[in-house]
Amino acid sequence: MTPTPTRLMSALGCALALTLLPGLPAHAQNATSTAPAKKAQVVILATGGTIAGAGATAANSATYQAAKVPVDKLLASVPELGSLAQVRGEQVFQIASESFTNEHLVQLAKRVSALSKQADVDGIVITHGTDTLEETAFFLNLTVRTTKPIVVVGSMRPGTALSADGALNLYNAVATAASPTAVGKGVLVTMNDEINTGRDVTKAANIRPDAFKSPWGALGMVVEGQTHWFRAPAKRHTVNSEFDIDQIQALPQVDIAYGHGNASPVAYQALAASGAKALIHAGTGNGSVSKDVVPALRELRAKGVQVIRSSRIDGGGFVIRNAEQPDDQYDWVAAHDLNPQKARLLAALALTRTQDAKAIQRFFLEY
Ligand code: DAS
């Protein structure tokens, strides 16, 4: 096979990386300036979603059934993956991601952790619905102790639609998972040509291909199978995390209640009564709490329920401690820049290690 410029570049790139980045994965270590680089071995774990969806006609870009196409058909629909890596697929679930549960998250994370320990795995891609993709990516970022690339990917249109985005998103995800440059960067999300960190990225639109945004910016881009990086993650993740999915069997119940005008404490009280060990307040503005809700939250805190102030404003900054509510006095936690759905996961993991609000606050500042 005549080496194409890309293949030469990737062989040279690997050779260059070999001198610059010791401890590279096997497929990169064997690369020399003459021998073609050994292809990375990438496992694709399929969970469902729109990327496995199907619509009645090509014009159905927004009305379709998610979680229909099995992983072998998904991989067969993008034969170009074979030029990037040795790819094999596993069907872990076949569900729309709005139906993900804590049990799904724990089971998936344990499978990812087990695969990451295998010598014949250099990178892992998870195909996933977009609705809760950011939650799964964040959870894996917190709990899977590996430097190997883990990339979560979805699509905003089913593969049957005109201008479907799934095939290129999947191609970009495999290119990233196979790239030595992605080693040690934590869990990544490749959507719409961008590479975002699983910690920051959020779904910011409901039916557009450019739906995924990070408040603090993307890490880079994937263009024609090549990764281009412009920043690195700033918070603790994967091998630098205190959480280890191999030591976790279940997550404590943590629920979210939305702040709004004319607010009442009923939702918070009902969630606590149903067993919530922590409540995430998706507050207005800087995570503010209505004066009609504060007494109930203080009462629940006194009974041992953790209170964590996040904000319904997505991506505009971060919740500051002791602003309009005296968190020190109330023994509450500020969620920093994490949105409510991500705060729920970090709070649940924190509760597997401590019941102390000050210790929980440290987790929110460092992860
Ligand atoms: N229902 C959505 C989900 O599974 C479809 C999608 O966007 O992937 O998240």
Keywords:
367 residues; Rossmann fold; 11 helices; alpha/beta; four-stranded parallel sheet; binds D-aspartic acid; eight-stranded mixed sheet
What's this, in brief?
The protein is of the alpha/beta class and 367 residues long. Helices cover 29% and strands 19% of the residues. The protein is built from eleven helices and 14 strands.
User: Which geometry do the CA atoms define?
Assistant: globular
Q: What would the average pLDDT be, to the nearest integer?
A: 92
Rg, Cα atoms, Å? 21 Å
Biggest pleated-sheet summary: 8 strands, mixed
Low-confidence segments: 1-21
Distance, first to last CA? 46 Å
Structural class: alpha/beta
Sheet-strand content, in percent, reads 15-25%
- Total strands: 14
Ligand inventory reads: D-aspartic acid
Say what the CATH topology of the largest domain is. Rossmann fold
Q: What is the helix tally?
A: 11
Order of strands, main sheet, comes to 2-1-3-4-5-6-9-10
